[in-house]
Amino acid sequence: AEQDDVERPWRRLLRGVAAGALSACLLAGQPCMAEEASSAGVGGSFSGSLRKCDPKSSCVSSSDLNAPRSYMAPWLFGPLPQDVAWKQLLQELGQLGATINTADEQAGLLAASVPYNNGIDVDDVEFLFKDGNLVLLRSQSRRSLPDGPFCIMPGCINGPRNRDRMASLRDSLGWGNMETDEDKQWEQIMMH
Known about the structure:
This protein is an alpha+beta fold.
């Protein structure tokens, strides 16, 4: 209970910083959330924003606002300077055995291929660092498996398996996300 009291003001601060950054992007007329881009992680050119998920693919992205199955909230890297957060993400990807495809620190773009399940599955991940400690993300699995049929864990969200892999990466970095579950209540739904 004591830890929750300490973390909540911190989360509120991060949400305030992120909201300010998003507002600044919108007021400046710059894209905060990606609309469309050419391939960033697979040797293509980068247009300044991340792509949405391909339909029927195993993918999560902070750009898919209209597709709840594929949407994942942007990440917040807290009070760290951006260059430190960049190096931290590179190091964590290295520990996962990732191959870095694009690393443009000036543009804030990092794209990599991350093997999972002993190399059976590979996620092509893209991260776009924005002002205000915000990181937009996209992860598309090369092998599209059907989503699980249901959730039995509190707070579980059905969807692509790489959602859990990205959440695990975020948690291992010690970063937060722009959405919190503080005000949400899990309700079990019985299906007959």
